[in-house]
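Bench notes, afternoon.
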Amino acid sequence: MSLAQLSKELTAAGHALARAGLVTAFGHVSTRLDADRLLITPPRPLGELTPDRHLELDLNVSELPGGVPREAWIHIAIARARPDVGAICRAQPPSASPLAATLGSPAPLHGQGALLGPVVPVFPNARLIREPQLGKELAATLGDGFACMLKGNGAVTVGGTIGEAVARMWILEESCRLALAAAAAGVTPATLTEAERNAWAATGPELLERIWDFLK
């Protein structure tokens, strides 16, 4: 995509996250421009974004430039560690924090949850990720996965495209909501088998695209 097209996609992502209730006053999304640069949303409510406000971010900086989110170290660290990642979404899905504080990772209870990978880890440090080292620790916790919940502080999802990263954030909220509902019912839920998870994961590109179209 051209820079103009990526800017429009980032704007659409911010608006979609806001409409879906996945961000509050905070949240940011980035997409890879090339091996060494990202395009990232500014520190403004994502529902108010316009395509001309996004900022380029060099992955090799030792200090963050003015105007970018102070948690941009999340995006830098993940993009450095994961060449396969084309976009990163940082949001506050409302069910993620209570689940992380009580049950931990959401068990795979529905098919779309398989698109988050076999395990959604929880980053155990509740501090804002405003230091390079914390960003590296978060990237290590994410590993080769697609989603990571942050203790008391929302979640991060990734994808090959902006749409995939945002769609996975929507799926993460649904997965956390289902896990909390099952726990409230007081029964042990039936989780998906490995074969079922693999079957759903194979449909990933198609389903993620359809979810992204729905959210837009």
